[in-house]
Amino acid sequence: MTPHIPQAGDYLTHEVVDTSLLLVRDREGVARAYINACRHRGARIAEGRGSKASFSCPFHAWNWGLDGKIVGRPNSHDGFAAADKRYDQLAEVSCYETAGLIFVLLEGDGIEGKVNAMISEALPDIENYNIAETKYIDSRTTELACNYKFFLDGFAETYHIAPLHKNTISPYYYSNSTLAERMSEVVHLVSPRKTIEKEFEKEADQQGQVLPYCTTEYLIAPNVLLTHQVDHIQFWTAYPVGGANRCRIELNVFWPMPPKGDGLEDAYEDAERKANLNVDLVWQVTTDEDFPQSVAIHRNLLSGALPEIVFGRNEPALIYYHQNIAKLIGSDQLIPLVDMS
């Protein structure tokens, strides 16, 4: 996400299954992606996120610039003078930034065309959220003993809200009322909160606001969920860990902050406090209520005692999401009971 690395020198490391990436904003303001490994002996050159003028490998202190080029090899005494020029440059992979999102292609080329083919219909919506102008607030990460899809399935319907979240978020939502549609390869969901009734109290010609009263989601197969949650952005990723039976879940929260300075410090601090509170609240609800269900479902299906499960017509986003995954991997395991076209 653009707010992760807004300024030149900002960087973020990101784990993609078994590959560690280093995302950097170079001196020209361009987002770039490198394999997070020194070309000398393969040591990781960065951890976490922050801002640096260059990167120093912790193993032998080889120094790398924001453009991925070698800056220096301390105490090497020309020991690498005969090395191929490829070792003068970090391994770079294709990177494309649009609408506040940063995409990386680990193999192949044509990233811009591939991204547009995948999310082109959703891009106008996403651009309206001005993600690049939000501030990164915080993140949470955990590992679960389940397949990554079981976690994402929970976001693809509101049918479960009344029973599972009875004492937490259920009072604020209509259960089983999500609108779903396909937008290119993206599944778009809109789930109204009960506060939308305020809009219906207005005169007919004054009605039309949706975002302030809804949770709006973009489910991008196989493992990404972008959420506009009334007044902020949540970005979820889920990756397999060591196979199909374990996954790593990460939540990142971004908030549109008021200007800082000129007597507005109190408003800025209030917004920051509210943002951090929301990170804690959403993580607590998912940790206490959603995660255990994902793990239990996985254990039941892993046992083999339950040969299949069923998605209802009131869960179209689940169907669309799994159809997208089936298309990506060439699976024929989905059996349609009715025509959902």
- Gyration radius, in Å: 22 Å
Report the biggest beta sheet as strand number plus sense, adding barrel if it closes.
Answer: 7 strands, antiparallel
Order of helix and strand elements from N to C terminus: EEEEEEEEEHHEHHEEHEEEEHH
**Domains counted in the coordinates: how many?**
2
- Residue runs with pLDDT of under 50 for 5 or more positions: none
User: What is the general shape?
Assistant: globular
Class computed from helices, strands and strand pairing: alpha+beta
Give the number of DSSP strands: 16
Strand order of the largest sheet: 10-16-15-14-13-12-11
- Proportion in β-strands: 25-35%
CATH homologous superfamily designation of the largest domain: Naphthalene 1,2-dioxygenase Alpha Subunit, Chain A, domain 1
The second-level CATH architecture of the largest domain is: Alpha-Beta Complex
Q: List the total number of helices.
A: 7
Q: Indicate the mean pLDDT.
A: 91
CATH topology of the largest domain: Naphthalene 1,2-dioxygenase Alpha Subunit, Chain A, domain 1
* CATH classification class of the largest domain: Alpha Beta
Helical percentage: 10-25%
CA(first)-CA(last) distance? 33 Å
